[in-house]
Design brief:
With about 260 residues, the protein is mainly beta. It has strands at about 15, 20-25, 30-35, 35-40, 45-50, 60-70, 70-80, 85-95, 105, 115, 120, 135-140, 140-145, 150-155, 155-160, 170, 180-185, 190, 195, 200-205, 205-215, 230, 240, 245. The two termini are about 20 Å apart.
Length: about 260
């Protein structure tokens, strides 16, 4: 059992998507549907399955191959739009034992240039309707260390509670010892928080610990309290909250914590 709420949707769970879903390729809208399905191929988040008739008619090009899945036999297709070709990017379910999925297509997320729920862009993968993300201000004192080196010490933080992940602690930059941090070129994205604006590795003695801290200067509107603040992977550092050392969690980002 983890110390944070787990995901609740089982693998192969299916539900209708109550939102308009669109996708863009080469500045052209090639998917536009209000009839998509959520399909949980693994427990952390779903995929969109799109009705074939809601896809640009010239987009799919059969590659003459089939694959078998728990949801039925799929035909593998490339995406073709003008001079742009994305091989093995789509899987068409002609038939499925799951009600509603016959005649739907599952796309590799990165094969399209952008995805939208209604008129808001979504990054990385579809948002899980069972995930809740809250950003709460807290005046509980916090200290961050790694190998005995103090990286940050602050009288308060913004705590981010996200289903399926341990609490993340976002700290004011004035409370960070940037002498121990090295900026990197890493950029990541989150369906719930947006695109990062900064990443830092941590130096302790002669060791470099890559990409342990990050920041969102322009998060999604729901997560505005974390704008400009810095968080650390608590799987990889030691966090003291109210002077009590927290246990390092294990997540799918870091299956085994470093000591």
């Amino acid at each position: 059992m983890t110390a944070y709420p787990a995901m609740i949707a089982p693998v192969n769970h299916v539900e209708p998507v109550p939102r308009r879903i669109r996708a863009v390729l080469a500045s052209e809208t090639v998917i536009d549907t209000s009839r998509a399905w959520y399909v949980w191929e693994w427990s952390y988040y779903p995929q969109y399955y799109i009705p074939l008739e809601d896809i640009h008619p010239d987009l799919l090009v059969s590659e003459g191959r089939t694959q078998h899945s728990a949801r039925g036999t799929v035909e593998v297709h490339a995406l073709q739009l003008g001079d742009i070709r994305r091989p093995r990017a789509a899987k068409l379910l002609r038939d499925s034992p799951i009600e509603g999925l016959a005649g739907t297509v599952r796309f590799d997320w990165d094969s399209l240039d952008a995805w939208y729920e209604e008129d808001e862009q979504v990054f990385v993968h579809p948002r899980n309707p069972y995930v809740r993300v809250d950003a709460l201000r807290s005046t509980r004192p916090i200290r961050v260390e790694l190998e005995g080196v103090v990286l940050a010490e602050a009288p308060s933080s913004v705590m981010v509670f996200e289903t399926g992940l341990p609490t993340r602690y976002y700290l004011d930059r004035g409370q960070i010892d940037f002498r121990q941090l090295m900026a990197t070129d890493t950029v990541t994205a989150c369906p719930y928080k947006g695109v990062t604006s900064g990443y830092w590795s941590v130096r302790t003695g002669d060791r470099i610990h890559p990409d342990l801290a990050w920041s969102y200067d322009f998060p999604t509107r729901q997560l505005m309290p974390i704008a400009g603040l810095v968080a650390f992977y608590n799987e990889q550092v030691d966090i003291f909250l109210d002077s009590e050392r927290l246990e390092r969690p294990t997540t799918h980002f870091f299956p085994a914590s470093k000591d």
